[in-house]
Amino acid sequence: MAHPAQLNLQDATSPIMEELITFHDHAFMAMLLISSLVLYALLSTLTTKLTNTNITDAQEMETIWTILPAIILILIALPSLRILYLTDEINDPSFTIKSIGHQWYWTYEYTDYGGLVFNSYMLPPLFLNPGDLRLLEVDNRVVLPIEAPVRMMITSQDVLHSWTIPTLGLKTDAVPGRLNQTVFTATRPGVYYGQCSEICGANHSFMPVVAELIPLKIFEMGPVLTL
């Protein structure tokens, strides 16, 4: 869960998010080095008297500043492509849960548990308990297991939505007439929050996603016991 004045990403709860945080730090360091070099060059140009008449002919320097950015781009692109393919990897999921976006709530279907179906609406402020998060708490949380690959089938009933939980590294569009899927493996229990990340109408800000992650042994007793 993000907190006020947070500068970094949320703590990872899945291997994919750990990879994304590592790549973020890697790309940030490259950006920091490039920015420092450009700033140093600008300051040097502004504070140094250019009296060297041979500075207009520097083929070695031109070669270096052409090849070096290409190398930096390759060092950024290769990890990015690796993570891109990891996010699309489907590794024989143990459970399948379908999420359907509506204006402005979510419907969840547990197809592996006798077709259990329920809706998830945001709780109005008058119904919040002490400690609940305003605009983020829902009446029915989606219950998911940890330490087991889970496949989310995501679609929409009306307009574009996006099922997003940042700490899991998940952001999948819900498109009418199309069934998208994503697979993740959570690593620790807890309650994790997200929101629809696609502008979907007047109440776009009021359709949160709340996932309650529980141990696999408890989940196998049946998610209906925890709803």
What do these coordinates show?
- By secondary structure, the chain is α+β, with helices and mostly antiparallel strands.
- The protein folds into two domains: 15-88, Helix Hairpins (Orthogonal Bundle), CATH 1.10.287.90; 95-221, Cupredoxins -  blue copper proteins (Immunoglobulin-like, Sandwich), CATH 2.60.40.
- The protein is 29% helix and 26% strand.
- The protein contains three helices and ten strands.
- It has helices spanning 15-47, 59-87, 216-219; strands at 95-102, 105-110, 116-120, 142-145, 150-156, 161-165, 170-174, 180-184, 190-195, 208-214.
- A five-stranded mixed β-sheet has the order 3-2-1-5-8, with no helix packed on it. Strands 4-10-9 form a three-stranded mixed β-sheet. Strands 6-7 form a two-stranded antiparallel ribbon.
- Strand 1 and strand 2 form a beta hairpin.
- Helix 1 (15-47) runs antiparallel to helix 2.
- The longest helix has 33 residues, at 15-47.
- It is elongated and about 80 Å long.
- The mean pLDDT is 87.
